[in-house]
Amino acid sequence: MLDTTKQAVRRIALVGAPNCGKTALFNALTGSRQKVGNYAGVTVERKKGVALTPGGRSLEIVDLPGTYSLRARSPDEEITRDVVLDRRPADTPDLLLAVADATNLRSAFRLVCELVQTGKPLVLVLNMIDIARHRGIEIETDALSRQLGIPVVAACAVRRAQMADLWQLLDQLSETHTFAKRENNWSEPSATQLRNLQREADRLIAQAVRYPEKPDNLTTRIDSVLLHPVAGLLVLLTVLFLMFQAVFDWAQPPMDLITSGFDTIGTLIQHLLGPGLVESFLVDGAIAGVGSVVSFLPQILIMFLFILLLEDLGYMARAAFLMDRIMGGVGLHGRAFIPLLSSFACAIPGIMAARVIDNRRDRMTTILVAPLMTCSARIPIYTLIIAAFIPAHRVAGFLSLQGLVMFGLYAVGIVSALGVSLVAKLIFWRNQPAPPFMLELPDYKLPRLKNVLIALMTRVKMFLHRAGTTIFTMTVVIWFLATFPMAPANATQPAIFYSFAAMIGHLIEPLLAPIGFTWQMSVALVPGMAAREVVVAALGTVYSIQGGADAALQVGHVLASQWTLPTALSFLAWYIFAPQCTSTLAVIKREAGGARWMWLSFGYMLALAYVASFIVYHIALAV
Ligand SMILES: Nc1nc2c(ncn2[C@@H]2O[C@H](COP(=O)(O)OP(=O)(O)OP(=O)(O)O)[C@@H](O)[C@H]2O)c(=O)[nH]1
Ligand SMILES: [Mg+2]
Asked: 481: closest CA among 536, 523, 419, 421?
């Protein structure tokens, strides 16, 4: 007779290999909207949520980073190991829900065999059963359940109807349930033990799973083109290029709509209030500042739409594979690709995604260069300047010149990241050979509209939240500085010349004059440290106060009349490198484990920005 223990399950942890659908399952169970994506390493943090079973009980669900073994090698895997082995008292699970990708059972079962050793109450979910069935893979869940001595259910995280069995099981478990009591025999497996575990997993597969005679090789056929060293790179470049064209070509109508919306509100307020301090605060400050940033939302969304579609399709891991050779040459780990790619959205998730890199040297290099990737906060700055100074010509009949310049700015960011990695490799870690790169390529999947829309909505919310908080606050500060003290009665200059902003600007200007920055730009740079797009808001506010209300929201036109081309180019160069916002610096400090790294990255980026602007400015002047 087995020794048993009676207990009601209250907290369940989701454990499984990367990309097996844990987060999709977590979202399905808890109604959350955590990020899922068709590549390994999406989740690097543990996330909690509450699931309400059909029987009306509530269960706490913990989503964890994916791992192939409890033999944790990287910081994200350590989180999973620690939760599974009860090393995090606040997260101790009553039950482990082992999640397996039913189309990829070898590595899944090896982990399950390891989880069995921990002696913890365990349930196996065969996720992605829809795809497995479609491919003709037959899995005998009863046989598996008998072999492993644990409940086994099939599920599809993205189809409600195919979640019923799992819900029913969860309901049962949430009642007082009898579990076989088992010892914790887990110890960190050696290479030999891992091989034994794999043999055990293969034996399970042989007994309970039948594969079709003719396997589906669509993925292999597509990959023969997309992973080709030449054709693959060409496809990658084309895709990226199309993305930048789209950013410029598709965004204009919605942008105009947003701008005219803000314009109308501004005019309305002017009519209602008449000129005065309150009117100036609302129109020149809040609306000019926040409106000038919000109008760039369409561009940011188009960019994300592309990235999300590619992520869901399963293309990102391929791109990483293609770039591995180039990245390896400059001392970047192949696994750095996804963190760097995430940094196109924002350096913060990018730096966090570097947790998937097990080797400290490679992780630090990735963290150092991640902020050089063009984050979405730079999109408003780039597009503002490009639209104002670069003519909307077509090159070779169909390429937009503006899109080309944008592509170029991104390319410079990427190339300098490669350059900095090379320097870091030479200076800091001269002799260590690069470890081999192993990355599982996910199967291609049709992007799920729902995933994409949810992720886009999350972006919209984050952006509007920033606009309403950081950007708005900074706009108020700038408006205050640019309005007070007010001009004397016998003033000869526009009022702003007598303000604090002008004083601060003139104080900083001598430092920035060699790179062609005006005093207005100098003031705008300071709040830009809070978040980069604040610079656009600050310029909007400064110039609208200076130029009268009609200048509000027409920042681009104002800049075109006030700046020279060399100044504009120098400003662009500055923002390729300009030190990251304060939140990024804080994340670097936390993830790298020390303020030293934060100051290092702040310092080197500031130096690069200054040098790059100086060179660009003087070359442009000479030409
Ligand atoms: N067709 C189908 N797709 C699924 C299913 N579950 C997840 N997916 C998709 O599989 C991909 C990976 O899902 P995630 O939930 O991000 O995987 P994860 O296990 O959390 O991955 P990591 O966080 O990287 O460890 C996503 O594109 C999901 O939409 C399923 O049951 N059926
Ligand atoms: Mg996940």
From this structure: 523
Distance CA 588, CA 558 (A): 36
Looking at domain 4-210, which of 3.40.30.10, 1.10.10.10, 3.40.50.300, 2.60.40.1180 is its CATH number?
Answer: 3.40.50.300
Q: How far apart are CA 356 and CA 77, in angstroms?
A: 8
Q: What average pLDDT does the segment 67-84 reach?
A: 94
Q: Is the CB of 36 under 6 A from ligand 1?
A: yes
Taking CA atoms only, the protein residue closest to ligand 1 atom 30 is 128
If you ran DSSP here, which 8-state letter would residue 335 be given?
A: G
The residue type found at 226 is: L
Query: pTM of the full predicted structure?
Result: 0.85
What sign has the CA pseudo-torsion 148, 150, 155, 157?
negative
CB 445 near ligand 1, within 6 Å = yes
Q: Which helix (H) or strand (E) holds 139?
A: strand 138-139
Query: Which DSSP helix (H) or strand (E) runs through 154?
Result: strand 152-154
Q: Could you give the ipTM of this predicted complex? A: 0.99
List the chain domain ranges. 4-210, 234-436+444-622
- Ligand 2 centre to CA of 14 (Å) is 10
Q: Which of 336, 322, 333, 427 shows the shortest CA–CA distance to 373?
A: 336
127 CB less than 6 Å from ligand 1? Answer: yes
H helix or E strand, kind and range, residue 100: strand 95-101
The residues, any chain, with a CB within 8 Å of residue 125's CB and separated by 6 or more, are 25, 97, 98, 99, 100, 152, 153, 154, 155, 166
- From the CA of 47, which ligand is nearest? 2
Ligand 1 center from residue 37 Cα (angstroms): 6
Best mutation site among 42, 47, 134, 166 for ligand 1, i.e. most ligand atoms within 8 A of its Cβ? 42
Is residue 180 within a helix (H) or strand (E), and if so which, with residue range?
Answer: strand 176-180
Q: Is the pLDDT of residue 174 over 80?
A: yes
Q: Which token pair is 149?
A: 């001595």
Ligand nearest to the CA of 133: 1
Q: Which amino acid is at 364?
A: M
312 CB within 6 A, ligand 1 = yes
Query: Which atom of ligand 1 is nearest the CA belonging to 129?
Result: 31
pLDDT digits (tens, 9 = 90+) for 101-134: 999 999 999 999 999 999 999 999 999 999 999 9
- The verdict on the CB of residue 569 being under 6 Å from ligand 1 is no
pLDDT tens, 516-554? 998 888 888 888 877 888 888 888 878 776 665 454 457
Q: How far is CA 191 from CA 75, 82, 119, 194, 199, in A?
A: 20, 21, 21, 5, 13
Separation between Cα atoms, residue 148 and residue 193, nearest integer Å? 18
Please give the Cα distance from 97 to 23 (Å, whole number).
12
Q: Which ligand is nearest to the CA of 27?
A: 1
Contact 197, 117 (CB under 8 A): no
